[in-house]
Amino acid sequence: MHTETAPPVGAPDRLDALRRTGLLDSPAEESFDRLTRLAARFLDAPVALVSLVDRDRQFFKSCVGLPEPWATGRETPLSHSFCQHVVIREEPLIVEDAREHPLVQDNLAIPDLGVVAYAGIPLVTSGGQVLGSFCAIDTRPRRWTEEEIGTLRDLAGAVSAEIELRRAARELVERTEEVVAARAEAEARQTFEELVQGLDAVVWERDVPTFTFTFVSRRAEEVLGYPVGRWLEEPAFWQDVLLHPEDRAWALDFCATAAREARDHTFEYRAVAADGHTVWLRDRVRVVRGGGGEPLRLRGIMVDVTEEKRAEEDLRTRAAHAALSADVGVTVAEGGSLRHVLQGCTEAIVRHLGAAFARVWVLNEAEQVLELQASAGMYTHLDGPHGRVPVGAFKIGWIAQERQPHLTNDVPNDPRVSDREWARREGMVSFAGYPLLVEGRLVGVVAMFGREPLTEDTLEALEGVAERIALLVERKRTEAALERREHQLREAQHLAQLGSWEWNVASNRVTWSEELYRIYGLEPQSEAIPFEDYLARVHPDDRDRVRATLEEVYRE
User: Fold this and answer.
1) Is the pLDDT of residue 412 over 60?
2) Distance in angstroms (rounded) separating the CA atoms of residues 53 and 137
3) What is the pLDDT of residues 278-329, one digit of tens each?
4) CA-to-CA distance for 315 and 309, rounded, in angstroms?
5) Disulfide check for 461: which of 2, 176, 190, 321 has CB 3.0–4.6 Å away?
6) Host H or E run for residue 250
7) C-alpha to C-alpha distances, 54 to 74, 168, 206, 314, nearest whole angstrom
8) Residue 464 and residue 19: Cα distance in Å, rounded?
């Protein structure tokens, strides 16, 4: 929180903490670039930055969307920095229109970089030093929502954790190397172990020739649940026990390549904890070399990034659901036949919810039969045994009859699935079906099968789409009924040789029915004609009387 005694940008302690990270003037790295890309994508912002504020400049450890020449230079003087105010104030800076904000309205970033809206979150070390800002920038005025600011805070927390990990790893390596240089190997080993036991990460060391673990910190037991003894005593423990089966092949290949090239490397993979749950690890590996440059040991730090991965997945899910809503909206707005629009909706469900296939049935009220109108995914045909489903028959008919959704993540054992052998063969895991209701009236059913379990968020998104599809079906039915009535009116007028017209007094234009055009022997027109053109068709002897009569009727 900002106070009157907040330290300035040039405070020695803060600058020292910044230097210790080793990030100033370092190359771009994917672990930071991924977070700025996520910020730009999910906040729909043209620019996102990881900005480290130095004494007289700001350095961009990561930047997305920054114009040239700033993108290549990756720094600006403080005359072009909003982020310096985040450092000085030690709190987020949210600006809707910089041109009107008293704190930054004279900042040169406005004319030179096009900065108008800005949202910056402090990047804070474990010691409380604010190193810079994780920020999103827009080139037009913008009201940042609480959800957007919350997303930015989450991503800024991930950036701060990454910086803190870099600092800790750097200090650990530097201190360890200092100890090794000053003492005998045995004493250095003892000191190394004492240093790493307090870190919030698993520190390990492996022998290069044998690839066996020679040291693992006690944090391993807290994170993964296995006794340290198993790491040290079982030569194949990491690859055969710890590595997730789905990551085993590529992770072993990646490590073998890095070992042959004797290069430092970082990678992320899933591990299986002792209790069976999955833990995401980020493993940073450094090659320790001998006096002749030959690789002797691999030294690494494993960090539990499960929560970070979960947050990223949540952001992806929210983006997919937003895209689904947008695609359905566009499909409905573009119009077309009911079958065409419903097909677009099922394709959007498959595309954004990961459905194996999705379908929509519309109720034939007269026959009480659900008629398949759209199908997307692995099945696109509209005929077959489910092309016409009586209300109350099969799973779809039950949903219609009960007017209640049917949801399951155990399709092979669902008693309402008529062909469970098909479900097992095709790997179906989940099903969700919703009745299409308008004010309690059934108009159809929408359903999807999936090969992955459905989350609450996904079900909520599908339920929202079902509501929009129900309203669409009802509107299309109303439009069809109106079109039928208009056709019947045209036929009745033709049989009776009776024309009709309508005068829009405000626009002073007249719309004629098709039969009235025929009576006058004219080609029908789609647009209304001026009132004076209508009067021109009246016999001259009657024209004044007709005008006077119409005006009198209008006045009354």
Assistant:
1) yes
2) 17
3) 999 999 999 988 878 888 889 889 999 999 888 888 888 788 888 888 888 8
4) 10
5) 321
6) helix 245-261
7) 13, 20, 38, 34
8) 51
Amino acid (1-letter code) at residue 135: C
Q: b/e string for 58-72 if b means 16 or more Cβ within 10 A?
A: bbbbbbbbbeeebee
Q: Tokens 């959704």 correspond to what residue?
A: 405
Which helix H or strand E contains 511, and what residues bound it? Answer: strand 509-512
More confident residue, 319 or 42: 42
In the chain, what are the helix, strand and coil shares in percent, each to the nearest 5?
A: 45, 25, 30
pLDDT value at 1 more than 60: no
Measured CA to CA, the distance from residue 149 to residue 157 in angstroms comes to 12
Residues 6 or more apart whose Cβ sits within 8 Å of residue 197:
217, 218, 219
Q: Is 240 exposed, middle or buried (0-12, 13-18, 19+ CB in 10 A)?
A: exposed
Phi, psi of 459, deg, nearest 5: -65, -40
Cα-to-chain-centroid distance, residue 233: 44
Alpha-carbon separation of residue 217 from 198, 205, 272, 350, 515 (angstroms): 9, 9, 18, 46, 92
Q: Which two tokens stand for residue 269?
A: 């993979």
- Specify which residues 504 forms β-bridges with: 509
**Tokens (6 digits) for 417:** 């699935």
Compute how many other C-beta atoms are within 10 angstroms of the C-beta atom of residue 497: 9
Which stretches within 78-205 are classed as H helix? 83-89, 109-113, 146-182, 185-196
Task: Report the pLDDT value the prediction gives residue 530, as an integer from 0 to 100.
Answer: 84
The segment with the largest mean pLDDT, out of 148-157, 208-217, 520-529, is 148-157
CA distance 357 to 379: 6
Three-state secondary-structure class, residue 375: strand
Residue 3: pLDDT band by 50, 70, 90 thresholds?
very low
Q: What is the pLDDT of residue 5?
A: 44
390 has a pLDDT exceeding 50: yes
Contacts of 332 (CB under 8 A, 6+ apart): 341, 345, 468, 472
Residue range 483-496, pLDDT digits in tens: 666 555 556 556 66
Q: What does the pLDDT read at residue 483?
A: 61
Degrees (nearest 5) of the Cα angle 203, 227, 202?
A: 15
Residue 507: count other Cβ atoms within 10 Å of its Cβ: 10
CA-to-CA distance for 270 and 243, rounded, in angstroms?
A: 6
